[in-house]
Write a structure and sequence with these properties.
The protein is 15% helix and 23% strand. This is Ferredoxin.
Amino acid sequence: MDNQKVKDAKNPSGPVKVKSYKIWVDRNLCIGAATCIAVSPKAFALDSEAKAVILETADEDTIENIIEGTKACPVAAIFIEDEKGNRVFPK
């Protein structure tokens, strides 16, 4: 992860708020494929256990790109809800 900082040090895989969305990674599902990072490197990184974490810089990315990064996960381990609690992905 180099010098990248996670959005929430106590819950590096979330849930965290990015813009008006709640995002989290199910660490039991995550296989460390890193496709989320390939699509959305400002939002995601892998920790020392090869599990996706949400970065402080996620707020600099667009929600559309973060959703694309989420959709790229081969095991659908990343979840996004809107401000009303409606599931954006996976549906």
